Amino acid sequence: MTQILCNKLAVFGVGLIGGSFALALKQAGAVGEVVGVGRSHANLEQALGLGIIDRIAIDAVDAVQGADIVVLAVPVGQMAAIMQSIAPHLSSNTVVTDAGSTKQDVVALMRQYLPAQLELCVPAHPIAGAELSGATAARVNLYQDKNLILTALPETTMESVQRVRQLWQLCGAKVSAMQAAEHDAIFATVSHLPHLLAYALVDMIVQRENADVLFNFAASGFRDFTRIAASSPEMWRDIALANQVALLAELDAYQAKLNQLRDALATNNGDALADIFSRAQAARQAWQARLV
Ligand SMILES: NC(=O)c1ccc[n+]([C@@H]2O[C@H](COP(=O)([O-])OP(=O)(O)OC[C@H]3O[C@@H](n4cnc5c(N)ncnc54)[C@H](O)[C@@H]3O)[C@@H](O)[C@H]2O)c1
Ligand SMILES: O=C(O)C(=O)C[C@]1(C(=O)O)C=C[C@@H](O)C=C1
């Protein structure tokens, strides 16, 4: 059993990500009380029933009072309102961290709403997840051997970073650090763009007159390409808007690649098609091999 590193953990948004964080820390024996705050009372009751949280907070003030760590695991569009509501009630020792998929927006909001707390602000992003939402989707081992990226502010103290790093390591995560801008550029390419593409394909199909027939015959290739189109629309709307600039650049780059493919196809240029497919096949196989 690990020693208690956090007597009171306040989790805003006890869904897949916040719930999995709480479960892993409880299993590690690293937290005392876990208090949950949410928008949906039914979800919080489920979280309580599943043992993810020990108590439902009466309100945001009750949640943060005496908390060692406050984690914001809500859609990134909700971060501003929460930061604003907790700012006057944070103690001088409370670390505020988050799990949002975008980081420049979270850093900017921390500067705007938590200016007195910046030394204790530790923006973070677990690179693990699923297309599922809510407390019932939380998994104790979600973060095992997965990356966790910290994008500390220049003001964040080493001690604050260390407190958050330790918690994620206890969840099994491999913790690294980078600048928020670099983070957002990387995840525009390898996470945010793929989600837009999956949503676009499914939406294109569902708007066809023969959508039923198409879905009837769709198989594993379609399933693998579009699993993430079953993800939360609110969460992905917020991510897309928060990372608008980088995501627009990635959409343009992808469109250029599609045009290359289109030209090759339209001109019966099998060599050009095979070149693209072979390069992609080798890269995908090499990437897969790195995972094991
Ligand atoms: N799903 C993923 O794969 C994944 C991976 C990494 C990071 N993230 C990020 O983690 C965060 C949470 O995502 P999730 O997948 O756990 O979503 P989720 O829908 O499972 O959980 C979010 C929870 O936040 C609650 N909530 C929403 N607004 C709130 C508010 N104003 N105050 C309090 N609670 C509120 C919701 O009721 C919900 O229970 C998001 O910022 C997301 O971008 C998601
Ligand atoms: O596995 C999934 O369903 C995910 O979408 C997880 C995923 C990703 O794109 O890889 C999604 C968003 C994150 O912020 C981190 C991870």
From TrEMBL:
InterPro entries the UniProt entry points to: 6-PGluconate_DH-like_C_sf, NAD(P)-bd_dom_sf, PDH_C, PDH_N, Preph/Arog_dehydrog, Prephen_DH
Q: Which reaction does it catalyse?
A: prephenate + NAD(+) = 3-(4-hydroxyphenyl)pyruvate + CO2 + NADH
Return one GO MF term: NAD+ binding
GO biological-process terms attached to the record? tyrosine biosynthetic process
Q: Which Pfam families match?
A: PDH_C, PDH_N
Coiled-coil portions = 244-271
Give the enzyme's main class according to its UniProt record, as a single word.
Answer: oxidoreductase
Q: What is this protein called?
A: prephenate dehydrogenase
